[in-house]
Fold this sequence. Notes:
Layout: E1 8-19, E2 22-33, E3 37-41, H1 48-56, E4 63-68, E5 71-72, H2 77-83, E6 84-86, H3 99-107, H4 116-122, H5 138-150, E7 156-160, H6 168-183, E8 187-192, H7 195-201, E9 204-209, E10 212-217, H8 219-224, E11 230-235, H9 244-255, E12 260-266, E13 269-274, H10 277-290, E14 296-302, H11 305-313
Parallel strand pairs: 3-8, 3-9, 6-7, 7-8
Antiparallel strand pairs: 1-2, 1-4, 4-5, 9-10, 11-13, 11-14, 12-13
Helix pairs in contact: 5-6
Amino acid sequence: MTTDRNDIVIEAKGLVKKYGSFIAVNGVSFEVSKGEVFGLLGPNGAGKTTTMEMIEGLRKPDGGHAVVGGFDTQVALKKVKEVIGVQLQSTSLFELLKVYEIIQMYASFYPNPVPTEPLLTDMILQEKRNDRVKHLSGGQKQRLAIAIALVNDPLVLFLDEPTTGLDPQARRTLWDIVLRLKEQGKTIVLSTHYMDEAHVLCDRICLMDQGKIVALDTPENLVRSLQSDNAIEFRLPDMDLKLDHVQQEFYDKFQSIDGVKQIDLRKDTYVLYTSDLQATLLSFIALTTEEKLTFTDLQTRTSTLEDVFIHMTGRSLREE
Ligand code: ATP
């Protein structure tokens, strides 16, 4: 990705949002380049929506500022609104209008809207063009919301948790649409708490937790930062009944296994991150046999963004 300053379409600098004494977003800064799909990934309440809405100009920051397409949201909000497209939540669509009517209604708000028919085709809604919004499935409503967000051919498209609540097939369809927009060079900022979604769709990912950025890089570099390609996960169900010093003893023993770079322990589940899966597995079996340790739920897998998040925060992306 180029770092040419002329290619920067979003600048977020030190964004802060407070609700009373609670700091929902605490000094968030990043830049997004033209043509980039930029992901805000974090668990519920991490501050993703608040960050996006400050950039969209929908929420006023208590600190810092955001510039979109060269326009500061606090100085030139009208200009910002002209260059962005924001996916509205499906509940805010007009349920009684037909699909093509609603797109045409939004198109009428702009001087140079994109034609309705190709938009319907791109969003795989051509067969639903005469259906009322209230009869659409969740996935179809989300695709309609994206169609509406694209109606002014925006410089930046914002998608806030676009696949939350969708079934796996509808999610895949939506991924394909985002990937096609990416191919066409559209700049997209999307928030999600699904790490697989962020990995598949995003050029760079801003990992957020408790209002702050914990890491920002390409998905590949984030996973590489663990310095271990594979994870071996298992449970020692009896372990949490034992004393801390016993747990520490095994922790130290696992740490000394061949290839192990780091260990995460959450309740009774251990994750050994390794640079040499085969050597680690063999040593693990030898150690647990020797120590007469009964493990369950053993699985090996490649390291993921979830592992990066756990390693950095001590918590899972999936935790509420
Ligand atoms: P989610 O996936 O649940 O939407 P998120 O990462 O988008 O999570 P935000 O919606 O930005 O998180 O919320 C960040 C924090 O700010 C949360 O703790 C939320 O409860 C709080 N918050 C958001 N909006 C308000 C508000 N209007 N008043 C008070 N607290 C708020």
